[in-house]
Amino acid sequence: MESGLNLKGKMRIIRNSIHLINKADKGHTIRAFLRLLPEEISALAGIFLTSLVVDGLLAKQPLSYLLFAAGIVCGVDLFVYVIKNLIDVKQNSHDFSYHANTERILGQKVMNIDYALVENIETKNKLERAENWIVNGNMGIPGMEKSAVSALRGLCSTIFGATFIAPILFRERGGQGGLLGFVQSGWGIVLLLILLTVLTLLQSFVFQQRMTRILGRDMNDKEVLQAGRIAGNFRGFALFNYRNGKEIRLYSEEKLIMDKYRHGIDFTARKLSKSLGEANKIRIYMHALDLISQLLLYGFAVVRAVDGIMSPGEVVAFVMYFSRLQEGFVEFASNLGDMFTKTEFCQYVFDFLDIADQKYKGSIPTEKRDDNEYEFEFCHVSFHYPDSQENVLKDICLKWKIGEKMALVGKNGCGKSTLVKLLCRLYDPTEGKILLNGIDIKKYKYEEYIELFSIVFQDSGLFSFPMAENVAANTQYDEKLVTDCVERAGLKERLANLEDGIKTCLYKDFDERGVEISGGEAQKLRLARAIYKGAPFIILDEPTAALDPVSEYEIYTKFNRIVGTRTAIYISHRLSSCRFCDEITVMENGRIIERGPHEELLKKEGAYQKLWSAQAEYYKENAGKLFGE
Questions:
Q1: 134 and 349 in contact (C-beta within 8 Å)?
Q2: Do residues 332 and 151 make contact, with C-beta atoms less than 8 angstroms apart?
Q3: Mean pLDDT value of segment 65-84
Q4: pLDDT of residue 554
Q5: Rounded Cα–Cα distance for residues 224 and 269 (Å)
Q6: Sign of the CA dihedral with 609 first, then 615, 620, and 624 last
Q7: Of 54, 624, 597, 92, nearest to 314 (Cα)?
Q8: Which pTM value belongs to this model?
Q9: 551-568 in b/e burial notation, b at 16+ Cβ within 10 A?
């Protein structure tokens, strides 16, 4: 896997990764480093004590001297241990918020980018990769922090080890010739350091980086991502949404779910198993290089000890300090290399977070009108979705009069909902313009423009939160207004029977006292939410498609009274529900083929009349209830 990043690009990813971590939890990286530093100090103190004890015993120092030395080192160790635990407590208390906030950062991006991008398959793949690497503890964003912290610790170990070993390492004895003399000379020391450095660099920048790439390769494979998404989808459907339990049992869907889940897991496991096998071979090579380094180190120490350059205690200290120095250098070099390698994975996080909105946000403020006099017009609008070249809407010309109630009708797939998505700027037209009071809607401030709409989609959801928060779409709300909206939407009796009123939690995901609501009640709550927003433009996009014609008509007529003088669009494939509208627009294959009042369209004996006749038998027996006939 090649990222195509140059050194400057990799440095930018490293900085951005650390910044992202500390944005999620301020000071997280510093605390992570400080919690490791005491371990280094404790280890060095232990080496120093060992050297003192060995030389003290050989020199027959009094017991009081040895105990005093041991006491000092133990006191340092205890102090370091207390400090480390205080830092650990502080860091552990922040770990939850750190992980939660990284997820929050992703969630905010998903909710804020253009809706057209959210539906795009490439964006979904980018999100999948970002989710992998923002939480992956080894090679993702947390892994980058671990490598940075470990590299700093390794650098400290190297510096401390070099400081303690220098007086011993560069002590020479002159007059010795041959191989022994060379080993004891400064040049021998230089050669040893060069050999150990080369072996370390081979481990860190060649084998370690190759192993990291192999382990991360399959995690970004499109087939692995797709398999993981399928497995996750079915896992969530079966495990975390208890309302699906009825269908699972009645249709014996457990086999379907488990087969899909098993296929995704097995496919991913096969791919990763191959990578782990390749990585294991590299680990063997790295261990062999480590053994060679140890042989060189111990051989050098033994030669110098035999010649009397080092005392027994210094030999022990030399080997331990040098091992610590070498381990520190390996840790520093390998983690530094890891940081550059992990940029290839962390880049996927920023590929998603850096997605730029394609939609022009505009700069003109929307006019605040007390009379709600807003007029919309479609001017020769055509549209096709980003992943298709086939127009869903074709040369649409349409205008809403102030306060007009208009119905959009037609067979499923004729473009009704797509038209609404364009009106709300979830998408922008491929061709043509949409005007608000004579101005292209692209020129208005996006955030202000969307506040003009209250929309109820047929698939819009409700949260397992209190009813009031669902209606207000906020944790802060006007209790009287919420109650009024719920009652006006037709839930007055239901609300009266709830012990906690509007504070009653919907469903039982988070509250055992939560209430289960019917499909009709859910739609009425969505209507209440639209009423609460108080926007001047109301859209009902087949929100009652799952209800019977009588219930649908009752909701539509009730909402028609609530709308009052505001402009409204009613979208339905049931023509009877929209009979009260001022104008009915008939769509077919992405085009407007008829428009006019109900009675006028029936007289034309065109497409609307045919659709009306085709549906007549469906609602015939309820006609008296519907129309009072």
A1: yes
A2: yes
A3: 78
A4: 67
A5: 9
A6: negative
A7: 54
A8: 0.63
A9: ebbbbbeebbebbeebbb
